[in-house]
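Hi,

I'm pasting everything inline rather than attaching a file, because the server keeps stripping attachments. The sequence lines come first, and each chain or strand is labelled.
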Amino acid sequence: MKTLYKILMKILGYFLLACALVVSIYPVLWMILGSLKDTNAFYNNIWGLPGVFHWGNYVYSWNKAAIGQKYINTVMITAGFLALLLPTVSAAAYAIARLNFKGKKKIYMFFLSGIMVPSGILAIPSFIVANQLHLTNTRIGMMLFYTAQATAFGIFLMRSFFISLPKSLEEAAMIDGCSRFGSFLRIILPLSVPGIMTQVVYSGLVVWNEYMIASLFVRSTELQTLALGLKVFIGQYSTDYPSLFAAMVLVTIPMLILYICAQKTFIAGMTAGAVKG
Amino acid sequence: MNKKYGTIRENAFPYLMLAPSFILFSCFVLVPFLIGIYVSFFNWNGLGAMRFINIKNYLFTFRDAVFWTALKNTFVYALVVTAAKNIIGLFLAMLVARKFVGRTLFRVSMFMPVTFSYVVIGVLWSWIYNPDFGLLNNFLSAIGGQSLIHGWLSDSSIALFSVTAVDIWKWSGFHMILYLAGVQGIPKDFYEAASIDGANKIQQFFKITVPQLNAVIVINILLSLTGAFTSNYDIVNVMTGGGPYHSTEVALTYIVTQGFKLNAFGKACAMSMILFVLVLLFGILQVKKMSHDENYEN
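And the predicted assembly:
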């Protein structure tokens, strides 16, 4: 009796896991299948495989939604953002983690307070400031605001990483004649690659997918990011569903492949902030 | 260890390292925040002259019934999402804590939605919810659940919950992974000792698992709460635009409507500041949590 109960519980467990798996994967599969159907099959053959694979949907959407341009914008903004964020927060976090100076605790708390202000609350005030500075509808404007909003968490993350490194390494380097800054550049940063990768994944993904600020800042079609462009495309082509699904696949798949290839880095990066806290 | 004879260069070095972040953060977070407070006391359409109207924007806001609805929805959204993500996340973590074939596949698949933008999953789920061609209603009619068929996004009594389900779908795998690390950290002998003492699985869950996971639970709840106050804009904007009849309107979508559709930037800023004060408690808790173990050892 006891063993039968155990077996039943085990089967129930597997059944629930299988359900969770279907719920998480099937919508994505459905998106891919839908993107390959023609309009008729899309409506009448909801569950099944497409009879004929309409690869042409991708070509059509790629051109119609100018997805290439949107990739360029998103890559440029994300890369520019990381190029600003990584050196600035690494330097600041290093100072807070390792150096002695007056007002250190106050400065750290000043940065941490940024975490208390959700980005949504800053959206309208940020737009007002950006507009006065003529930074709306520019890539650099988005990079600057994204960087500033990621600074608080970035310093927190890098600081906790630097603290975990042994001090003796820098001390040895400095005895050998390396300056403070030199030992930061040559000893600490190379050892911090895992921490930097965490930062790249965590903040990079946020900016790659960012929608709210982009939708307020960007006016011209040529500057649209993937997330924003997809939303606009949906508004304009709200009846041509296979093309719309094709656009969604085109926007999603490269990141999905990157995730599958580097899933360990992704999962570690995304959960690091929580585990550190 | 205060060095008395540091050179100017040595003394300036920490501040030089801090300066770029300090300037960026001040210019593009602190200044906008302060300007937001300032503008909230003015009547301003975003372009023309600003007219000081004291606290009238705040009074208008408090008298605005839609804003109250939006605030209520914001908190309902946050609470539903937080409860569901944590219950599902913990439940799944308990299920996958044991080794089984395909566990990595399961973890990777469950975590996958985290990498998607809200725009993509918002559109995808709008289609799953579509009353006629959507997966959900077709699935329900296939299993004989006709009575459960709804206009998931058009029925104002359930639209908000339909929208939260998407957020829950996106993040449950993330919370599962966080809980999994916690669950795997609980020593096995605790459970062995408890089962020798005759405790059943449910008792073990509440007497061992939950207390042992205390810190992990706090982090998960804080993360999902603070996340929910920001992410709701994207999902609602993409899926319903706040409708039908403001039933899915959240504070952020209403703030943007005030600013960009009605050009009431003063009022939009006042609303932003009210929302800030209301969510401040969670922010303070999070910062406390993040700095609690801080050892300023050097």
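Chain B touches chain A through 94 residues (CB under 8 Å).

If the labels don't parse on your end, tell me and I'll reformat.
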